[in-house]
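Interim report, section 4.2 (structural modelling).
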Amino acid sequence: MKNLLWIQGLSCNGNTQSLLNAENPYFYELFQKVELLYHPSFSYRENLQTVLKRIDSDKLKVNFLVVEGAVTSDMKFHRTGNYTIAQILQKLKDKVDYIIAAGNCASFGNIPATLSCNPDVTGLQFRFTQKGGLFPSDFKTKSGYPIINIPGCPMHPAWFTQTIIALLEGRKIVLDSFNRPKELFMYLSHDGCIRNEYFEWKVEGEEFGHKEGCLFYNLGCRGPMTHAPCNKILWNGISSKTRAGMPCIGCTEFDFPLRRNYFETKKNIGIPEEVPLGVTKRAYLTITGVAKTFKNERLNKKLEETD
Amino acid sequence: MGKVIKTVLNRVEGEIQLKLHWEKGKVKDAFIIAPNFRGFEFILEGKPVLDALVINPRICGICGHAHLIATTKAIENIYENTGQKIDVPQNAKLIRDITIGAEIIQNHIRWFYMFVMPDFIKLEKGRKLKAFEPVKGIKWQQAVDYSSKIVKVIAVFGGQWPHTSYAVPGGVVCDPTTFEIVEATATVDSLIKFTEENIFGMNLDTYISITSEDEFLDRAKGSDLKEFLFLCKKHKLDREGKSYHRFLTVCEMEHVFEKGITKKKKKDFHVGKVRRD
Ligand code: SF4
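Predicted structure of the assembly:
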């Protein structure tokens, strides 16, 4: 059976917690298909140091190395035993078949990489937009894949389990320019949001707390600019932030923690600074102008009052 | 100086090292070292205040929702201190209590079955605690199922767990339908059944009416709490590492405990005097 080793850098454990919520397959079903060698939260017999020794002396071969959390080579900021996460990764990088970055921290650096007093904190192969993190941009593991990024803060469990299973089954995974599985991250988090009609007819939410209205124009929603299938593969099997009424904050993207004012749409003379991906500002304005001249009666009422 | 012993603990965000200085069979000094530093307090500096609703839950993956609710209340306090009264509608208060309650239930199940019980397997060499074995044990797997099920309640109101920021100063972002509320109550009912059958070993009303440990042990059937108490006593955990009844709490939970230092008599606690080395 193929095996999997999970290590943690600067992390909140949220990707582990999210993975525990997996439903198809369940967490423990995934680890019937692939052996869990070590995980800091669940292993109680072995410690990481002994596992590393076995790998070092080539007594143990690792197929999947999963990294949760941002990495640094500065001992003052991270240590596992006597090593930093960067040292451990340098030891392992050429010995494993695949390296998976689980979550935005391991993928792009995320919030830990915004700490200004340690500029060394980074993602594995990216630091925000910058290509090359701990590993250079041309680095590839034995399998020929670069680091496979499964961002999201946290990642959705299905994105992770399905990636691992696809690889176990010998399927080829196409990656996008940020090394995310293309077939997951080609969707925008806007795709499938139950507020889509409000978006199309420009019925804009002015404040939080309503079932009606789109959160794009005033309330900061980044759904139309964010690569993530959050409204296709629902969270906890039932919902998503935008469905509940919270704006998408773009947490699967490289620049997530560099942005500010998550609950407000940045505008210039009344026009959103960023328009949906794939549309020019001019086209967007024309379309919205037209949409606004026609009124969709249904969308201008409370849902409970519609016919 | 006597012997120095270092133990490594690792469960949630990074490693914790426990360093003990022993002298003549007694612990002379104890240090808890957390070698991982992310620095949220510095990261927050200069950020727009509402962004803390997004940043702070990410302090912790297992209890991020508690950080969200605390942040929301702190921001509400800031507004109030500057003279802007914030009225949180009663519905929103209830929804916040429900979602934080759901996370606390998840915490209890995950801590108990995933982070506490597996450690007994090592202590119990002869007896089989197979059901509690991580990943493979049936009780461990059930804990995954039910702890993941209860956080669906947070997803009903907040869209997802972990890491929603659905509570905002003044209320919550959602406006649930009757049917969504029923989805949440049905989930809670299923958790109550799980707790009765697996943790209490009796129904909830009986459990609440119990007045002594003996009565509990006597009446509980197939209870993992009973198993836990048995293991604690067997390994003398009830006697080991006993404290001197000096406790410190920075927070307050209404009706349960007040903040302060308990050392027989209660004293005030000043956050301002806390030092970081
Ligand atoms: S709320 Fe956001 S995701 Fe939903 S329709 Fe509007 S822009 Fe799209």
